[in-house]
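Worked Example 4.2. Consider the chain below.
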Amino acid sequence: MTTKKAILAVSFGTSFEDTRKLTIDAIEADFAAAYPDCRVYRAWTSKMIIRKIAKRDGIQIPTVREAMEQMHADGITDVIVQPTHVINGIENDLMKEDALSYRDKFSSIVFGNPLLTTEEDSDAVIRAIAEEFSFLGEKDALILMGHGTTHYANSIYAALDYKFKDLGYPNIFLGTVEAYPSMESLKRQLRAFAPQRLVLAPFMIVAGDHARNDMAGDDPESWYSQFTAEGYSVDCVLKGLGEYSSIRALLCRHIADAAEQAGK
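Applying the procedure from the previous section yields the following structure tokens:
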């Protein structure tokens, strides 16, 4: 039987076309360039966003199951599933379940790791962030907004926040919208650090709804509004992690690791 390999790039998704082009599209293009012998397919895990785009734009983005069906129909034999998820959380668990329900239709299905899986990943991401924000002054603090989850994998956010400080970046703080570290813990840390200016940036693959509204929005509950109310001068950077070439390169390395495991 002829072997036909494919990479399935699985993202949460976004309804914002401008950030999608700069992040998800760019990641998939890098996958295709790094692995020319593999066809790259797309799947999104947010059914709500898939429905929204279908209704608004008439564009049908496949779910993981639909993408697996399409690859099988196209005669693909071996699949590397590479998520663009930041952590090994709920979305990633469900994605694996969906993909593995097709295990009988393929010679092999292997999974690349989400962005933050190993200590080496954490170190690489910290380097990427520090490089991106190397312009920060001594009296500036960078506040990164992660998503957060009820999944136990959420502990990676607090661990990474600690590691920024441990590696010599006392002015970089990582919080989450929906879990811990929370806005209250960020406020306490910042009072102790006493910066003059804050720079807010999303710690998410895309700079979508959370970045524009929960982080940089005018609503009194947004991070921008809350920190401004605390008396800080606040700037917002609407740039998703997927726009960083070093982050995309790390995801490409995860594909290589998965391919190596499959070959053993």
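The beta strands are 5-11, 39-44, 78-83, 108-111, 140-146, 172-176, 197-202, 233-236. Residues 245-263 form the longest helix (19 residues). Compare this with Example 4.1 before moving on.
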